[in-house]
Write a structure and sequence with these properties.
The chain is α+β, with helices and mostly antiparallel strands. Helix content is about 20%, strand content about 25%.
């Protein structure tokens, strides 16, 4: 399976989860390392674009293609299992608890979660502490300039 991630060149291009741990996110609290990826390039872009404006748009993004071996199983969180309002901004602590427990339990390397940005699409959270993590690799890196019309 291939998943995608937008990253900035000013940061090391690695899969570590350290960036997500600095501020936390929808699926992890501050201090919990997790790697966010998306099922498509378009979803990856949308997940980042909702946090930007034309005035704050950096020009150093790269799209990463991440290869996950097909024999690595994943756990799925269904939208019907989540509390009402799980997808609002600012995000709910309920979803952070789910992600934090996923990392802490270390039972799986991947957690498939619904996107709060694009209904019907999914993100894949990667646990950098799981034994299968070492098998997940960045296989492509391409400059990714945003089309400014998105912010117009």
């Amino acid at each position: 399976m291939e998943v995608f991630r937008l990253a900035r060149k000013k940061h090391p291009i690695t899969l570590s989860g350290k960036g997500a741990s600095i501020c936390g996110g929808r699926w992890n609290s501050k201090g919990t390392e997790v790697v966010y990826t998306a099922q498509s390039r378009a979803l990856s872009m949308a997940e980042v674009a909702v946090h930007l404006s034309l005035a704050t748009l950096p020009n150093d993004f790269v799209m990463l293609t991440v290869e996950i071996p097909d024999d690595i199983p994943f756990v799925t969180i269904d939208e019907t299992d989540l509390v009402k309002g799980w997808n609002v901004f600012p995000h709910s602590f309920a979803t952070q608890i789910i992600g934090d427990e996923f990392i802490r339990n270390n039972d799986a390397c991947l957690l498939k979660v619904p996107s709060a940005v694009v209904k019907g699409d999914f993100n894949f959270l990667i646990n950098p502490y799981h034994e299968d993590f070492k098998r997940i690799k960045i296989i492509d890196q391409t400059d990714f300039p945003f089309d400014k019309r998105i912010f117009g």
